[in-house]
Amino acid sequence: MIGILIFFSLVMVMGCPQFNANFLGGKMDIPVYEPNENCKLVGFKPGSEPNGFNGIKWETKLSTLEGMKHLRKDNSYGGVYFYVREKDTFKLGNGKLESIEYGFWQGKFYTGMVITQGLEDFNAVKEAVFAKFGQGAKPFRNKEEYLWIGKNAVMAVRYDEYSKVGTFYVKSDSMTKQMEEHVANVK
């Protein structure tokens, strides 16, 4: 009991360890990203803006596609449902194959996504994406994140150094606007 009281007293005096970098010699793990003042919006390399992902055009109805297997639901915008398609893969710059997740909102295709584990696979995705679409805008100097804005597509490649997860996604801008309007009208 006395040990618990001492511990809580230390916490009260010193603060919570996750927010106090000096607590028992620990270090702070809260990332602080430095804006890249030279960053400008970047579009896609001429002629490369996607009108869908991996052969599925934006707003294609899920019911018209074969071999789609439900993977998960994201509750955003009233529900974005993610699927994988049998034998469908994305080839990384290093030759490795990763599965593709396809996101649908109200039964229409909205986004394609590839998720990688580890820096090596992230760099391979980044290499493949840069080769096809050009180099994206880098909004932070100390974070691996790149963005592209087109007429009807928004794309990002980003790496989370803490979880060691890389994400590459392309989404329909017109679908995003429909989703935002839907959420505004529901409130």
What does this protein structure show overall?
The structure is a single chain. By secondary structure, the protein is an alpha+beta fold. It has helices at 2-14, 119-133, 173-186, and strands at 52-53, 56-57, 68-74, 80-85, 89-91, 97-105, 108-117, 145-149, 153-160, 165-172. 22% of the residues lie in helices and 32% in strands. Strands 3, 4, 5, 6, 7, 8, 9 and 10 form an eight-stranded antiparallel β-sheet that branches. Strands 1-2 form a two-stranded antiparallel ribbon. Strand 1 and strand 2 (56-57) form a beta hairpin.
Provide a compact summary of the structure.
The protein has three helices and ten strands. It has 187 residues and is α+β, with helices and mostly antiparallel strands.
Broad structural category? alpha+beta
Question: What coarse outline follows from CA principal-axis ratios?
Answer: globular
Average predicted local confidence, pLDDT:
83
Please estimate the helix content. 10-25%
Q: State Rg.
A: 21 Å
What is the number of helical segments per DSSP (H or I, 4+ residues)?
Answer: 3
Largest sheet: 8 strands, antiparallel
Uncertain stretches: 1-25
Q: Estimate the strand proportion.
A: 25-35%
Please write the string of helix (H) and strand (E) elements. Answer: HEEEEEEEHEEEH
